[in-house]
Amino acid sequence: MSEAKQNKLVTVDGGNAVAHIAYRVSDICSIYPITPSSDMSELSDLWATQGVKNIWDQVPQVIEMQSEGGAAGTAHGALQTGALTTTFTASQGLLLMLPNMYKIAGELTSSVFHVAARSIAAQALSIFGDHQDVMAARMTGFAMLASNSVQEAHDSALIAHAATLKARVPFINFFDGFRTSHEINKIELIPDEQIRTMIDEELVFAHRNRALNPDNPFIRGTAQNPDVYFQGRESANSFYNAVPAIVQETMDELAKLTGRQYKLFEYYGDEDATDVIVMMGSGNQVVEETLDKLNAEGRKLGVMSVRLFRPFSMEHMIAALPKSVERIAVLDRTKEPGSAGEPLYQDVITALAEGLNSGLIDKLPRVIGGRYGLSSKEFTPAMAKGVFDNLADDKPKNHFTVGINDDVTHSSIDYDPSFNIEPDNVTRAMFFGLGSDGTVSANKNSIKIIGESTDLFCQGYFVYDSKKAGSQTTSHLRFGPDEIRAPYLITSANFIACHKSNFIDQVEMLDKAADGAVFLLNSPVGPDKVWDELPEPVQKQIIDKNIEFYVIDASTVARNAGMGRRINTIMQTCFFALSGVLPRDEAIAKIKAAIEKTYMRKGQEIVELNFKAVDASLDHLHKVKVPSKISAKHGMMPAVAPQAPKFVQEVTAPMLAGHGDDLPVSMIPVDGTYPSGTARWEKRNI
Amino acid sequence: MSEAKQNKLVTVDGGNAVAHIAYRVSDICSIYPITPSSDMSELSDLWATQGVKNIWDQVPQVIEMQSEGGAAGTAHGALQTGALTTTFTASQGLLLMLPNMYKIAGELTSSVFHVAARSIAAQALSIFGDHQDVMAARMTGFAMLASNSVQEAHDSALIAHAATLKARVPFINFFDGFRTSHEINKIELIPDEQIRTMIDEELVFAHRNRALNPDNPFIRGTAQNPDVYFQGRESANSFYNAVPAIVQETMDELAKLTGRQYKLFEYYGDEDATDVIVMMGSGNQVVEETLDKLNAEGRKLGVMSVRLFRPFSMEHMIAALPKSVERIAVLDRTKEPGSAGEPLYQDVITALAEGLNSGLIDKLPRVIGGRYGLSSKEFTPAMAKGVFDNLADDKPKNHFTVGINDDVTHSSIDYDPSFNIEPDNVTRAMFFGLGSDGTVSANKNSIKIIGESTDLFCQGYFVYDSKKAGSQTTSHLRFGPDEIRAPYLITSANFIACHKSNFIDQVEMLDKAADGAVFLLNSPVGPDKVWDELPEPVQKQIIDKNIEFYVIDASTVARNAGMGRRINTIMQTCFFALSGVLPRDEAIAKIKAAIEKTYMRKGQEIVELNFKAVDASLDHLHKVKVPSKISAKHGMMPAVAPQAPKFVQEVTAPMLAGHGDDLPVSMIPVDGTYPSGTARWEKRNI
């Protein structure tokens, strides 16, 4: 597509990828960290402390305020001084910015707000990802640019910063909280010289010249009355009308530099598709990968990714859709109770109705809308197929939900959860660790080793349970020869490690194992006796799925190697030894190289200690001979005491056991009201 | 329709009418006054201070906070104690309430927020009315009830308070800021016993029982994770599904008591209409009155007032539309730059598309959308006709504006401003006064006198220019035998009074005079010489329009009567003497009765002083003999100095002269940036 040569590859998460751009093109970052946008604020703060410079060879000023209201006010004020200003936020934080956002947009001020999109606290708070927050900002007059992956969020950040200078309309650059902001992926980093090429110095100068300035006094921030406010509100129309072309032009410029071509509305799939999904955010990748498989089986499916959500260009949308489309399912990752329909769904219907009126299309496709992925609820290929299947139905459900079991108002559609499209050439590894045991850090390190020293692509995503430190973490790592486009949790792992021995009695993990998977258990019980310690369901899974079962007493190895209770290097070594991501010797060499790099400053002795631990790991890693029959005399440990009351048995217990996703709507309190005093029934012997 | 007998009639403004209800059904009003909702907060505060009781014989607690954020947090907290809680707000104030509103709705909490809908500060702040604020709250999960007049806002407040208890969904009760909140009209007041009938005590008890309570502990306000948040968000669907029927049922109950029947979607017009306007708020009355006239001429027009905007009931909307409809113009009193269309427009299209899909209609009417009335921009019968005319066009403008001249993006539609439907039997009086001269108070008093002591209906609306005290006020009063349904300024007055003599040189006022109107000028110049003092355009209007011209030296009368500079009673007396609203003797008797009532506490002497002023007024009121020819040697005084710069000449001057409405979009700064130092060019010899 382009002669652009490949830039440096790095393994970073979405927050880092976005902050990298935002920081480099800003004079001021006004911040108030809120999950899942915090990393962007905190990285900017760290970089400023370290003296990292922006593309103008200056260290940006990072200003932390008392709330997002203050951060937005500071941004508004800083912009009025002519400073290139950015901020990072999410959820209620974005809500507190709304009043200033109307002003910033009304004054046609170039700026980008980066949003790791998150749920809004309603029946309960949630720190997780969906689009409720950005949808609540869609009337402010900000342009809104969505992206679907770590690479795209990185690219989109630069497109937004470049386009806002051309358009004078401020931008929200948004991407899925956690799923994109916290997914580690291997991306091409845009080097500073390309950033400089994208940012037009003349426009920066023009922005600075619009500053309030005592040497060139004028008034901004007046009151207007019925006589002229309406005219004033309409006076910016031409600026909004120009945005779509400006953004496309900016996307094209980026494509020339990087080879990565984006479009305002990006269609993927069969050129003669009859059934098309329209959506925003990471779910697009899920649908793309899914329909490749389904189209190969003869279906005619497509997906249209909406990148420029505001201003919404009817003409571009209709041009991007195949003429053959008969049915459209619009997926919104939000919920607006009582609305006539979720926002993207209504936009698509409106655009099609206008397209029909203006003769751009000659018949209205059937359009239905659905909700998915609220609060980082998984959106999987199985669900994507379910959406296509519902769409193809004679009487498709409208205003449907997918991914839950709504047994009350029956909004949910069915899907087959066993539908799976993970390619065989991808290593899919899961690690069950304790909140503070170093498992997540070691896995991030493994991704870095593999991502930056091999041609393999990689992905890491980390799930923390609700109780943070001292509780369970699950790491989901993928490695493979092609770009990893799988923004959902692993359900078919070919490597599973249990880093905390007693989790094996409490947490179902081998239900996620693929046939023939490797299972590594950290246990003080030796290879001869460990089998008999396993609960019945685990033995059954190991036998039924032909699982290769390994055990290591990592705690003893760590203690003997003088590393105290730090088992993470040892378990990491075993992962490399067993997973087959890299040849074993190469892997061990790379671990040792990483150790050398990390610890050399602390002296050769520490390095040798770690080397010894690596070697000892392999010496103490044992394959367990798996009997052909179940011998266990106990099952999984119940999550709650048997005398616990009904609600605890029926709702709390499945949540504790990791089966909260299966709870139907009828089991969840309608108004966020829970019985109190239920913690005492939990059996959390971590 | 009902056997309900008429309740007591009162003349009040919309804010008072709404607060009257809200106060009576609340335990707690948590307030932070913001224009144009301030009166509701301040009245509640006053009533509490005076010991006025709610329907449970308690004095509600009125709590003023530091901002609307605090008021909303207090409301949320108070509701969680089981208190019936209300608040009043608008504009940015509502924006600051959004985070708490998501929580209040998510927790299914019965409450009503009363909103005098107002613009949001964008390119400039504006205190005036449109629906930008409530539209920014449409995703919170609050139900939203719109009303179109003072009476309706009063009724709607009670419907909302009654329905929220049944539905558990909180309500926004909104009405047009200023146009409804500050219009004085004669309404039937719902007496306390009817309020008690509407408010179900069992449901109040149920609300109190849902309070957080140490004697019955439970938890509300938790965090939810990806496993259950989505189910939790969907768990309230059935509550939202139930709202439309609940609201209709509540409307029906009110109808039984009062005879005033409302519907969720209320259609008015030809039963076989081909062209229908859909809208919310006071503009509906304008369209209703306009189409009566046009339908009488053979057109087939209708208007559908949307009362329950959220939850939006597709079925009810379609059922309310005549089957014959071919074309629909949806009018939104808001602007969301970059949207695919304004919100009500998108809702109507969505509902129709779904109605088509589900077979409720067999063909999609052509739907266009337009914006009107931003920031209290006038919406007149002439504009309503313009909207119908555009709709009937072969190629109607979509996303149009009406009421402005958009010479940049050409969104505006044409209309004939001379189109006028004011009935002959309505007295239409305008008063030009000084900001602090008592004109407005006297006019409010006149309305009260006429409204409460005669069978006449009445309306008052007061326009303040941008500079508040010391500047111009224009009072618009209507009196007539039928309900006054004219929520727009008077453009064809049959009585005009100029209370400040030098305004005659500065302010065009007789351009609003009807043929044969009465013009009363307060002037120190006597009846023989006053003609020669008038500027040429005023003389011309008086002659051309056959105006009866009266003069009084009110300042001298006031001084002589020992009333200092207070001319308002004198001018009021002249109005009653000249306007013909009441027979002169009856009018004078009523003024004197009002004086007696007001001043008796201060002693008979003060009463006599005022009586004397009234009688002296009539003695000093002179009819001026109008010559048949213009004799003036001067024109109107220019609003700015002739050496003022271009912007001041072209933009500031028309605004100062009261012609800001005529400024085209191209003349208004795109980003709210104005030249500074322009005040010195103003000639404001007030």
Give a verbal description of the structure.
Two copies of one chain form a homodimer. In chain A, the strands form three sheets. Chain A has a nine-stranded mixed sheet with strand order 1-8-18-19-17-20-21-22-23, sandwiched between helices. The radius of gyration of chain A is 26 Å and the shape is globular. In chain A, helix 20 (568-579) packs antiparallel against helix 21 (584-599) and helix 21 runs antiparallel to helix 22 (604-620). Chain A is built from 23 helices and 24 strands. In chain A, 57% of the residues are buried. The longest helix of chain A is centred in the middle third of the chain and has 22 residues, at 237-258. At the A-B interface, helix 4, strand 9, helix 9, helix 10 and helix 13 of A face helix 4, strand 9, helix 9, helix 10 and helix 13 of B. Strand 9 of chain A pairs antiparallel with strand 24 (673-675) of chain B.
Topology overview:
2 copies of one chain form a homodimer.
Chain A: E1 9-13, H1 14-24, E2 28-31, H2 38-50, E3 61-64, H3 68-80, E4 85-89, H4 91-106, E5 112-117, H5 132-135, E6 143-146, H6 150-167, E7 171-176, E8 184-188, H7 192-198, H8 201-209, E9 218-220, H9 229-234, H10 237-258, E10 265-269, E11 275-279, H11 283-296, E12 301-306, E13 308-310, H12 314-320, E14 327-332, H13 343-357, E15 366-372, H14 381-392, E16 400-402, E17 427-434, H15 439-453, E18 457-464, E19 472-480, E20 493-498, H16 503-506, E21 513-522, H17 530-533, H18 536-544, E22 548-552, H19 554-560, H20 568-579, H21 584-599, H22 604-620, E23 622-624, H23 646-656, E24 673-675
Parallel strand pairs in A: 2-3, 2-4, 4-5, 5-7, 6-7, 11-12, 11-14, 14-15, 15-16, 17-20, 20-21, 21-22
Antiparallel strand pairs in A: 1-8, 6-13, 8-18, 10-12, 17-19, 18-19, 22-23
Helix pairs in contact in A: 1-2, 1-6, 3-4, 6-10, 11-14, 12-13, 15-20, 19-22, 20-21, 20-22, 21-22
